[in-house]
Every structure is written in C-alpha cells, then in structure tokens.
Amino acid sequence: MRVAVFGQMWTGGGDMMRNRELKAVIFDMDGVLIDSEPIHFLVEQKLFRQFGLRITEEEQHAYVGVPMKEMWKLIRNRHSLTLSEEQLLAGHKEQLIAEFSTAEPFEAMEGLRELLSEIKNRGLKTAVASSSPRQLIETVLARLRLTPMFDVIVSGEEVKQGKPSPDIFIEAASLLQATAGECIVIEDSCNGVRAAKSAGMECIGFYNPNSGNQDLSGADRVIRHFSEIIGGELQ
Q1: How far apart are alpha carbons 231 and 150 in whole angstroms?
Q2: What's the pLDDT score for residue 230?
C-alpha cells in the first residue's frame, strides 16, 4: 500500500500535517540523492593503499556520514599517520571531484525526482545537508540536473562540528527559516540519523545496502524506496 508523503505520524498514526505544520525537507546527499557510497569507498580504499593503511570494512563503514576532515583526523590518530590533516584532506577532495566528474552511469536514486516534485508542489522548502565538500555537492547536483530543486545547500565544511553533531541540520533549518519541529530529514547513515534527532527533527532512515550495515533504528521510520512516501493521502 502506498503511503502519503510525510503523512504517517511516526508516533501513533494519523496525518502528520494535521498535527504540525511542515515547512521543509532536508536531504543527505551520498546514499540518498545518489547511490554514491561505492565511489567514496573506492576512492578511500585507493588512498588507504597509497598511505599503507590496513583499514577494515567495518571501520570504513563507521565513517559514513562523517565529514572528511573529521574522518582523516580519526584515521590519523588511530593509525599514526605522519601526513598532516590538510595534506590528507586535499588529496581526498581532489580524487573525489575527479571521480564524481566522470563517473558513469550517474543517476539520481529511483523515485527521487518524483518525490522532489511532490514536495515542491506542496510548497515545501528543500535543502541538502551533506558532510561532503560544497564543491562536490554542487558537482553532483549539477550532473543530476537537480540544482534548481534545492533552496539551500549546507556542507560539512561550513559547520563547526560534523555529524553526528546536529550543527549541519540546525544551520540548514536556520537558512530555510524553519524551526526544528517544522523539518524532516532523510538520512542513510547512523551518524546522520543521530545528528537529525539531536537537532530535534523528525528523521526518515533511508536503507541503502551500499552504505554498509548502518544502524537506522534511531530514525522515526525506515524506508527502502522513495515510493513508500509518495502519493496516497497527499492528493
């Protein structure tokens, strides 16, 4: 059965729109707008080999949703790397931009365009709040031809603390001129879900197997396809 977009009240059923006014939907990018985690994993594995690091798949998956700067800070301390965080970050960013600029096929997640159209038709605002660098977010949105669909972009470079801290979602809500209670976040990572809930926002966990074994149990609801929140009562 198709469910109304954001129409299911997570705590006790009913129509969320009758219980509060929804103003904005905030999307993570990697693993939500595009199935890009395999590209991230590939680039990271190349860098790990380059630096002589032996990092398990479990450890790598733990960094999903974490800003690159924070990831390299953790790796540098854990594995006693001598290169500076700035050098590690610059190399990582350069390789990511190169990969995302040429990767094929390059497609939005199935059902995303329909969901965005429905959200816009309803007069809601939209944001991307991603731990990725702004240049990478802009590259992805441009290649997907989705730039006009988002009112606000916030990157991990623009907040003091990255996910799982709530800073990025608080900043997105501020730019959207919405309160935390007027926002819903769609996230595919444990760190992202934790950040959204810490910001006081409703959160839809988007299960993406390519994002690793992410614990989405903290989300208000978990979906596997955007069709689960399109149509139905919304009409």
Answers
A1: 20
A2: 81
φ and ψ at residue 58, rounded to 5 degrees? -60, -45
The CA distance from 131 to 159, in Å, is 9
Cα 94 to Cα 231: distance, rounded to the nearest angstrom: 40
Residues annotated as part of the active site: 28
Cis peptide before 133 (omega within 30 of 0): no
Cβ–Cβ under 8 Å, residues 99 and 213: no
Q: Are 88 and 72 in contact, with CB atoms under 8 Å apart?
A: yes
Q: What residues have CB less than 8 Å from 147, skipping those under 6 apart?
A: 138, 141
Nearest Cα residue to 191 out of 19, 66, 56: 66
pTM of the model: 0.83
Closest listed residue to residue 203, CA positions, set 180, 186, 189, 226: 186
CA distance 22 to 122: 10
pLDDT reading at 232 higher than 50: no
Across the beta sheet with 125-130, the strand order is 152-155, 125-130, 24-27, 183-187, 202-206, 221-223
